[in-house]
Amino acid sequence: MTFDGTGLLIFLLAIVPGFIAQQARSRLVPRSLRAKSALEETGNYVFDSIAIHLVLLATFRVMFAAIHSMTPASLGAAIVQKQLPVWAWQHRYLIVSYYVVSVLLGCILGVVRGVAERDGRVGAWLADNRFLRPLLLRLGIRAFLEEAPVWYEALREKTRDERTFVEVKMKQSEGFYTGELKSYSIVPDSEPNKDLLLVNAAYKKKKDDTYVTLDTDGVLLNFADAESISFVKTSGRF
Predict the structure, then answer these.
(1) I need a surface site. Which of 34, 57, 109, 214 has the fewest CB within 10 A?
(2) Would the pTM of this model clear 0.90, i.e. be above it?
(3) What's the pLDDT tens digit per position in 77-108?
(4) Are residues 142 and 54 in contact, defined by beta-carbon separation less than 8 angstroms?
(5) How far is CA 6 from CA 12, 18, 39, 220, in A?
């Protein structure tokens, strides 16, 4: 079969579960800090899609064998006789069901991966695995091996109720800022310009002075202007 427009459409539909998995994962962990090529992005989608389809095909095969269905045999005969479009129309509800389940499985896979990678378990295991790490690197699939920057790991909220309060000591004796961390940039550790937004902020000029609450909605600071940042995390609703 030539890779014509129909083949391209089938390929794109086949990698949708992998695309869904990557999107679900990105909801829980930061996106790659390094710009990825279209080939690498597609490679990640294909990798996840292959895993999803292998699991589903094995599951469907076991299910058909358990009920003594002739569907797999008829599919093989349709391929040999080049009657695949006819077979697909006759089994359209089965195909739609399979596709819906594959998309749902992609979403579940993305969430599971996101939760595991957010805790650093997957990356650490793969990075230490002497067999899988070279294989993934050779295939150009680095998403599993990427490590979040120290900046992100230190400040990220690990639970929904966790809050982070910071004290920022500015350079050149420009004083101290403190407040609740509302937002911050997710950038590589080598990037000095890291923005952070404080709310309920206060300021003092010298270390021994008393903090004065600022009458503002928030204070936007840049790490390049800071000498150091200390932080405290608290849990529970206020």
Answers:
(1) 34
(2) no
(3) 888 888 878 888 888 888 889 889 998 998 88
(4) no
(5) 10, 20, 21, 52
The Cβ-side half-sphere exposure at 156, using a 13 Å CA radius, reads: 15
Buried b (16+ CB within 10 A) or exposed e, 109-126: bbeebbebbbeeebbeeb
Q: What angle do CA 114, 140, 111 make, to 5 degrees?
A: 10
From first CA to last CA, the distance across the chain in angstroms is: 63
- 37: Cβ contacts below 8 Å, ≥ 6 apart: none
98 residue type, one letter: Y
- Give the pair of three-digit tokens for residue 169: 């000591």
In 91-225, at which residue ranges do the beta strands (DSSP E only) sit? 163-170, 176-184, 195-204, 212-213, 219-222
Mean pLDDT of 107-123: 70
Contact 22, 51 (CB under 8 A): no
